[in-house]
């Protein structure tokens, strides 16, 4: 038609035919077969051509427009033919439309089928994944349940619930999914619907077979996934809580409470804050507050006290039949210089025969003597009321009888009065020893009358207190004194049961070089045997060996017998009570409990344990200036004596506060404590170990060493009044290490040393240190470099040293070389 003439873009030439020749550029040609469309109906146009182009209708049917030369019959025939052609065409179009629709449906069906298949595929993969996860989870829970039977129930529950949920969710969730495509299909022809359904079910059946009948719907999977996601984010529905029994002592540190509840300490602090208590996790709260918290967290509170944990210590009342008389324990008290030490020595020397154990008694803090009449008396070797009271403060009432020493040439003095008061407070009977009666100026009667003022009425003045005139120097009256004590003991009817587990009190304790912690224990009841397991204060141990006051090994120690005990795990304190228990576990448990309790108590009482607490404390009592100090000493006795002396220093404006005291070398812990409170560390016959020394240097903590208590007291007094000069009394000029010990005839033991620091000077003072504890202080007998006696040896050089009057030197000991300096005293 229109493409037969005019411009032909592809250069189709020639008339309309079955084929056309296409010519392209560069002379290429191509023959193309052109298919001309057959006209289905050919209706000759009555008028001018072109009207039948689209098989037109109205002009053809209109008789007025009928072409000329056509008869009616012809017209009718043509019209029929036209109508038939039209009907045919409509029919064909309909058929085509129907065919098209069917094809479309078929495509749609295939698409859906593919989709479904894909979904099922996905579902199956997902289900397999879930199953794997589920299995893993179940296994884990099983393992957990095995490990924690208590937690098993809550852990198993969610699993069961989940499984049940999955089962119940299955029908609802699956239904719409399966029905939806089916509904769609039924709207169409529903062709082959049953077959597809059965095919789908087969897949599902296969799937469910793989799951062992526990198939899960996608919805259930999704829910589970959501739950897991929430759990991971931490806002899961709370797991079933494990209710714990929480043991709470009288006071407990917040963190420890949180630990015992297995809760986070931050949560506990938060809970406390909500209660209006601003505390940190390192602070302590009391039992009542703890109870509120424990309940808040849904646990069970169990109040505990020493008694609960220490129930294993059998406090059985002894039957009267089991009781046997025991020796009295005597403490000698009195004013300074009235002769307490002399009297103790005199008694010991008078009663310990020279042949016994070389005539030398060992100082273990107590000793026993036998009177002429055969009575056995146990004397505590620590005179003075300081030890007496500090022991009493710890709960050890050891003393049965107090011997009050009053010098006949001096009469009653302040400390005499103090001693009287202490004895009375403890309810312990007294015997007055009027000492120094050998002196011409002695006036025993004055002593007796003086004592009246303090309500001590001696027998001579028709009272009940026995009095004996003695002389520690001459030994006069000593036997009488001992008999008086024995008589007093008889009146007291002191008894104990030797056939039970031992209970005793620590008289003295120290960390002994080589032997470890050593304690002198005075057995109060029962008998202590070698091998016994015991708890003593915050320590525990097993009796490895025992020595009596004569230095003899003993296997048993009965009531009122003092023994030195080896085999402790730590150094107890004087006054600590020793109890024998059945098992090591019990001993350890009680000791640990006591340690914790002591820690809790200290923290609760605000005893300085942390910097904040110290600062807080200091601010609270700002009207009184305090000089805090940390004291370390070689033996417990010295430490306590220093503490007592320190506590006496001070007035209304200033006072000394002992932050901590203990036995042994100065350690890093001591330095830390001192630094925290700006305190100096006092070392009495002990030294700082190397790490502590470094730490002190770094932190600027002052360490002061003393070996004379009066020097220490003077210095602290001066420091407390802000008058202590920065100059030191002693200056260390060097240190030497003993590498070898030789025996040189005529000289004795000589130490082969290496001067490690500073200088060794012949004229200087020397101290022998063993494990940072001062063993000996004195002067040098020789200082040799090779064979020559020299005045000085420098650092890095070797030399030989020997001490004046001292032989106990060992390899590894350290010699401290010091010089004394005169210090200007501004006040005294
Ligand atoms: P303490 O401080 O109570 O232990 O007293 P001491 O035992 O150290 O004695 C103080 C001083 O008094 C020492 O110099 C002793 O020698 C002296 N002393 C002790 N007892 C007697 C005594 O009975 N007669 C004489 N004349 N002097 C004594």
TrEMBL record:
Low complexity: compositionally biased ranges: 148-171
Keywords: Cytoplasm, GTP-binding, Initiation factor, Nucleotide-binding, Protein biosynthesis
Location in or out of the cell: Cytoplasm
InterPro entries in the record: EF-G-like_DII, IF2_assoc_dom_bac, IF2_II, IF2_N, P-loop_NTPase, Small_GTP-bd, T_Tr_GTP-bd_dom, TF_IF2_bacterial-like
Top-level lineage group: Bacteria
Pfam families xrefs: EF-G_D2 (PF22042), GTP_EFTU (PF00009), IF-2 (PF11987), IF2_assoc (PF08364), IF2_N (PF04760)
Annotated region (Disordered), positions in chain: 1-223
Binding sites annotated in the UniProt record for GTP: 334-341, 381-385, 435-438
Basic and acidic residues composition-biased segments: 88-147, 174-187
Cytoplasm as UniProt keyword: yes
Keyword Transmembrane annotated: no
TM helices/strands, residue ranges: none
A GO term, aspect molecular function: GTPase activity
All copies of domain Tr-type G, residue ranges: 325-493
Primary subcellular site in the record, as a coarse category: cytoplasm
Gene Ontology CC: one annotated term: cytosol
Cited function: One of the essential components for the initiation of protein synthesis. Protects formylmethionyl-tRNA from spontaneous hydrolysis and promotes its binding to the 30S ribosomal subunits. Also involved in the hydrolysis of GTP during the formation of the 70S ribosomal complex.
Family designation: Belongs to the TRAFAC class translation factor GTPase superfamily. Classic translation factor GTPase family. IF-2 subfamily.
Designated name of the protein: Translation initiation factor IF-2
Organism: Maritimibacter harenae
């Amino acid at each position: 038609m229109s493409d037969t003439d005019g411009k032909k873009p592809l250069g189709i030439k020639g008339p309309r035919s079955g084929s056309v020749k296409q010519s392209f550029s560069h002379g290429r040609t191509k023959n193309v077969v052109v298919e001309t469309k057959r006209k289905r109906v050919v209706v000759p146009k009555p008028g001018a051509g072109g009207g039948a182009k689209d098989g037109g209708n109205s002009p053809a049917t209109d008789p007025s427009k009928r072409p000329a030369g056509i008869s009616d019959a012809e017209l009718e025939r043509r019209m029929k033919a036209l109508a038939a052609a039209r009907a045919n065409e409509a029919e064909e179009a309909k058929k085509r439309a129907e065919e098209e629709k069917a094809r479309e449906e078929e495509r749609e069906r295939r698409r859906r089928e593919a989709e479904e298949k894909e979904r099922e595929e996905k579902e199956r993969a997902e289900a397999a994944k879930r199953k794997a996860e589920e299995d893993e989870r179940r296994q884990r829970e099983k393992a957990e349940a095995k490990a924690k039977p208590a937690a098993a129930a809550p852990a198993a529950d969610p699993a069961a619930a989940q499984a049940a949920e999955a089962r119940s969710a299955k029908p609802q969730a699956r239904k719409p999914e399966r029905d939806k495509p089916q509904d769609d299909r039924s709207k169409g022809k529903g062709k082959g619907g049953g077959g597809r359904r059965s095919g789908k079910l087969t897949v599902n059946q296969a799937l469910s077979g793989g799951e062992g009948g526990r198939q899960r719907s996608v919805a259930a999977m999704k829910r589970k996934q959501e739950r897991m996601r929430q759990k991971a984010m931490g806002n899961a529905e709370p797991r079933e809580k494990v209710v714990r029994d929480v043991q709470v002592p009288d006071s407990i540190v917040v963190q420890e409470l949180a630990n015992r509840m297995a809760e986070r300490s931050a949560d506990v602090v938060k809970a406390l804050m909500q209660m209006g208590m601003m505390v940190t996790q390192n602070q302590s709260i009391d039992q009542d507050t703890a109870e509120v918290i424990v309940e808040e967290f849904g646990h069970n509170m169990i109040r505990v006290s020493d008694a609960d944990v220490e129930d294993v210590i059998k406090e059985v009342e002894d039957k009267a039949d089991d009781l046997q008389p025991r020796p009295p324990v005597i403490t000698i008290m009195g004013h300074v210089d009235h002769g307490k030490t002399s009297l103790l020595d005199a008694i010991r020397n008078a009663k310990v025969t020279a042949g016994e154990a070389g005539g030398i008694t060992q100082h273990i803090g107590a000793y026993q003597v036998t009177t002429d009449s055969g009575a056995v008396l146990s004397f505590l070797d620590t005179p003075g009321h300081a030890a007496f009271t500090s022991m009493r403060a710890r709960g050890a009432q050891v003393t049965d009888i107090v011997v009050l020493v009053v010098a006949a040439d001096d009469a009653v003095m302040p400390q005499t009065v103090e001693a009287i008061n202490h004895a009375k407070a403890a309810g312990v009977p007294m015997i007055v020893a009027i000492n120094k009666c050998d002196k011409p100026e002695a006036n025993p009667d004055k002593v007796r009358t003086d004592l009246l003022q303090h309500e001590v009425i001696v027998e001579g003045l028709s009272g009940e207190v026995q009095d004996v005139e003695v002389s520690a120097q001459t030994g006069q009256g000593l036997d009488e004194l001992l008999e008086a004590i024995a008589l007093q003991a008889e009146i007291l009817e002191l008894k104990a049961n030797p056939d039970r587990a031992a209970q005793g009190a620590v008289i003295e304790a120290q960390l002994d070089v080589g032997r470890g912690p050593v304690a002198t224990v005075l057995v109060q009841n029962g008998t202590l045997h070698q091998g016994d397991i015991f708890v003593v204060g915050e320590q525990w141990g097993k009796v490895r060996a025992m020595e009596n006051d004569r230095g003899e090994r003993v296997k048993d120690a009965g009531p009122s017998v003092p023994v030195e005990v080896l085999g402790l795990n730590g150094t107890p304190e004087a006054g600590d009570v020793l109890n024998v228990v059945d098992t090591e576990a019990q001993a350890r448990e009680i000791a640990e409990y006591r340690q914790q309790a002591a820690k809790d108590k200290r923290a609760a009482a605000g005893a300085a344990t942390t910097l904040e607490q110290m600062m807080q404390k200091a601010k609270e009592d700002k009207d009184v200036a305090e000089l805090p100090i940390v004291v370390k000493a070689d033996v417990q006795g010295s430490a306590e004596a220093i503490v007592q002396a320190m506590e006496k220093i001070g007035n209304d404006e200033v006072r000394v506060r002992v932050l901590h005291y203990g036995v042994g070398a100065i350690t890093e812990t001591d330095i830390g404590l001192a630094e925290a409170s700006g305190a100096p560390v006092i070392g009495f016959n002990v030294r700082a170990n190397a790490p502590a020394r470094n730490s002190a240097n770094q932190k600027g903590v002052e360490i002061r060493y003393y070996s004379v208590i009066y020097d220490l007291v003077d210095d602290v007094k001066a420091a407390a009044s802000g008058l202590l000069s920065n100059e030191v009394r002693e200056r260390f000029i060097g240190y030497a290490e003993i590498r070898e010990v030789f025996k040189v005839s005529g000289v004795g033991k000589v130490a082969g040393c290496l001067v490690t620091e500073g200088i060794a000077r012949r004229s200087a003072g020397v101290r022998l240190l063993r494990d940072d504890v001062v063993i000996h202080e004195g002067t040098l007998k020789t200082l040799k470099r090779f064979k020559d006696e020299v005045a000085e040896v420098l650092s890095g050089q070797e030399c030989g040293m020997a001490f004046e009057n001292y032989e106990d030197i060992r390899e590894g000991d350290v010699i401290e070389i010091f010089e004394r300096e005169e210090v200007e005293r501004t006040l005294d």
